[in-house]
Design goal:
With 703 residues, this protein is α/β, with parallel strands linked by helices. It has 3 domains: 6-260, 2-enoyl-CoA Hydratase, Chain A, domain 1 (Alpha-Beta Complex), CATH 3.90.226.10; 293-472, 3-Layer(aba) Sandwich (Rossmann fold); 480-698, N-(1-d-carboxylethyl)-l-norvaline Dehydrogenase, domain 2, CATH 1.10.1040. It is 48% helix and 11% strand. Strands 11-10-9-12-13-14-15-16 form an 8-stranded mixed sheet, sandwiched between helices. The protein has a 5-stranded mixed sheet with strand order 1-2-3-4-6, with helices on both faces. β17 (568-569) and β18 form a beta hairpin. α1 runs parallel beside α2, α2 (78-86) runs parallel beside α3 and α9 runs antiparallel to α10. The longest helix is centred in the C-terminal third of the chain and has 21 residues, at 603-623. The two termini are 42 Å apart.
Length: 703
Amino acid sequence: MTESPVAYESAGETGYISVDNPPVNSLSAAVRKGLVEAIDAFAADTTAKVAVLYCKGRTFIAGADISEFGKPMVEPYLPDVISRIENCAKPVIAVLHGTVLGGGLEVALGAHGRLAMPGTRVGLPEVTLGLMPGAGGSVRLPRLAGFAAAVDLITSGRQAGADEAVALGIIDGIPDAADPRAAGEAEARRWIAERRSPRQISGLPAPRPEEDEIKAARARVERSARGQIAPVRAFETLVAALGMPFTEAMAFERSAFLDLMQTPQRAALIHAFFAERKAVQQEGLKGIQPRAIAKVGIIGGGTMGQGIAAAVLNAGLDVTLIEQDEEAAARAAAGLAKMQQGAVKRGKLSPEACDQMLRDKFRTAVDYAALAEADLVIEAVFENMDVKQEVFRKLDAVCRPGAVLATNTSYLDVNAIAAVTSRPADVIGLHFFSPANIMRLLEIVVADKTAPEVTATAFALAKALGKTGVRSGVCDGFIGNRMMNTYRTAADHMVLDGASPYDIDRALVRFGFAMGPYQVGDLAGLDIGYAARQRKAASRDPRERVPVFADRLVEAGRLGRKTGRGYYIYDDETPQGRPDPELEALLTEVRAGQPGNAATFSDEEIVARYMAAMVNEGAKILEEGIAARPLDIDVVLLHGYGFPRWRGGPMHWADAEGLGAIAQNIARFAETDDFFWKVSPLLARLAAEGRTFETLNTGEGAS
């Protein structure tokens, strides 16, 4: 018989309910059953007057058991477990520590008193999975913390620290004790001495916000939700439940929760959740030890180099940054200091930690010899093959044997960079995304001769930096930029054929992107795409359709936000940009003489073409082995390119849309352009056989 992860211990007038279900004490069926049995044992204990509910290990109950996601629910159901705790005739005190989220916080809200150890964080993040609280969170929390705080926490899914939780009334205090059990013991003695009785949140009155307050809150939620249904449904449920008796409100909340369980958005967000965890799991690296990394060199002190330096310093590593002269080195050091001071202002870094790392763990140099003892060197210089190869020749000459040599190239051939060294096995691509100290994605580009332990080191580094590492093979643009080039080309073709860039941006923002492709271009700088087109011009197929309008903008000095003008106008009146009425004349001139330039495109057609190009290129990337799994592509697009998370990623979206429909669309588009629109053989095969990209994630459709 399997031992229960929940134990009850009687110790005089205090009973102890302990949960021990590593690694995060998730609410498995066994834990739920064990909690009911422990509460029953406490109720039957004639000696114990107060029970302390606490967890062993690194955290209090951190939420649901993810292994149960997508499976039929098993009794006892969580609302019933929490009701059993709340309705106990004797007081139950929950002592929280670690990360107390979702069902874990709902369990704590069922207790009659709550303490939180220093450093505890609480939250109801169900909306990040396309859900809402389903075990009383949206019914109990408003009664305890008020309407505004409950709406904020539930519809944003954000976490609150212990101090904020005390201020909001969610927990009663932060004990000065060595551990949760000791804190609970002291609190239990106080309750016993004061002869306290159970204090049920269900017995507290629900807040009654004014109609104007509700209206304003609804507008904020709808604005921030940007197409997600869970935050809006959670808000509507919370508001409606305020006017119901407690029992009726609980049933109403549960019904809304179960409705959301059936939505495509919930399936997409769960897919994204698991994809992120699977992306860092590399079957081929099992048992391979990464190399130790303590000292890191960075070549280049521009914006990217500074961002990489900040990320590495924040991970506790030592950094030496190389610039070409003392003046450039001083600029880089000043830029990094400003970047880190920004992190201090945002509360991400303490002033003391900032000062210490800049003083003791960071230095600049102008001589590559300063990297002689580095464990890892990351090159972040200008995106030019000759320049990068020269850097690697120098590194090959000065770096110690076993040092990992990484290039931060966005497009260039990592094999060609490795080839100029005497140690290609030590060379790997680490494609950071800007700003590198904030963006979570790290494309790990494995060259043909990269040693497995070097790849393992790259994944270990990504974890240390708090980033999601995704493996990519070598090709122009790797996974993300290669796909971006393709779907951006589809957008450019629509503009050449008569669509307005503003219509395209609007349609894709409605689809769920934070920005459309032309807004993104202005933000990044139009000169970047121009340089890439110039680099490829000599090898361009004559059948390619060139976005002449984009080149004209750059040649006119309109580079986007940094010059105040690109596709949009940026000034004090509209710092986020407004359409430029002069653009239409340029487009009319460029389109002259081109076939099909009188076409009009509905929002649906814009999305269909943009997404078909994205999915089709993803299928080609899979077929070539550049990405190992569709989920890797989804993670790259989610974290590096603003793909709407609630759609799960492009390959998951394609499965939901239907691969057959997408293949048919591509065939229709090919009727007028059979050079650009060629359906991937993999996409065609999966569609014909009624399979999905998900079967490639699970190994079912690999043949």
